[in-house]
Amino acid sequence: DSGVTQTPKHLITATGQRVTLRCSPRSGDLSVYWYQQSLDQGLQFLIQYYNGEERAKGNILERFSAQQFPDLHSELNLSSLELGDSALYFCASGTGGNTEAFFGQGTRLTVV
Amino acid sequence: GIQVEQSPPDLILQEGANSTLRCNFSDSVNNLQWFHQNPWGQLINLFYIPSGTKQNGRLSATTVATERYSLLYISSSQTTDSGVYFCAVLGGYQKVTFGTGTKLQVIP
Predict the structure, then answer these.
(1) How many CB atoms lie within 10 A of CB B37?
(2) Chain B residues near residue A98 by CB distance under 8 angstroms
(3) Please, what sign has the CA dihedral across residues B75, B48, A66, A27?
(4) How confident is the model at residue B30 (pLDDT cuts 50, 70, 90)?
(5) Fewer C-beta within 10 Å: chain B N or C terminus?
(6) What is the pLDDT of residues B36-55, one digit of tens each?
(7) Cβ pair B42:A105 closer than 8 A
(8) pLDDT tens digits, residue range B6-15?
(9) CB of B101 less than 8 A from some CB of A
(10) What is the pLDDT along chain A (112 residues), one digit of tens a residue?
(11) Are B93 and B31 in contact (CB under 8 A)?
(12) Alpha-carbon distance B43 to A10, whole Å?
């Protein structure tokens, strides 16, 4: 158990809908990272937050947004969902900077 | 951005065999990690190794940062080692880049 909790584990939704994925980091970690793993794109870095502030942005679509709350949990919001958004979404946490990241079990999103 | 290449892309081993997986990266990095993604999709930390050598049981890893590569050694492989092995690097601007992975199948 990495100590990073993601909910829900599975999500099935229709095209055009909006969903929210939740991540609770390991105790003491200030940094949260979001990744998308799809069959054709591999593991893609989406966005990083550190202590409530956005720190780095990767290949995140404009239809996607994220935030980190004062209690350090994070949410990834995906809207106007398309079939191609079906993927495994991972959250990771770390202390920030160049340190080791620990991954949650992922949320498997299926858009139908 | 940084390019991360892993080789080989696929590997089939007989149980008990040894193997070496390689990760090449195109620029200086601040951090390198190796992960194992098991058949259920879970990403498991293996090593945090920006430089030097580390060992954990049957696994060991070496990163030569000046030559921009890292190696993961698996000895006496077991069927539970099957899955995909990823290296991930942290370069400038906190951006994390994963390699394309090595898919390992260990057969009894």
Answers:
(1) 21
(2) 30-31, 50, 90
(3) positive
(4) confident
(5) C
(6) 999 889 999 999 999 999 99
(7) yes
(8) 999 999 999 9
(9) yes
(10) 889 999 999 999 999 999 999 999 999 999 999 999 998 778 999 999 999 999 989 889 999 999 999 999 999 999 999 999 999 999 999 987 777 889 999 999 999 9
(11) no
(12) 16
A-B interface: how many C-beta pairs under 8 angstroms?
A: 53
**A65-83 burial code (b ≥16 CB/10 A, e <16):** ebebeeebbbbbebeebee
**d(Cα A61, Cα A98) in Å, to the nearest integer?**
25
Paired with A45 in beta bridges are A35
Instruction: List B4's β-bridge partners, or say none.
Output: B25
Helix (H) or strand (E) holding B13: strand B10-14
Question: Which phi and psi angles does A84 have, rounded to 5°?
Answer: -70, -5
- Vertex A9 angle, CA A99 and B38, to 5°: 60
Residues 6+ apart with CB under 8 A from B57: none
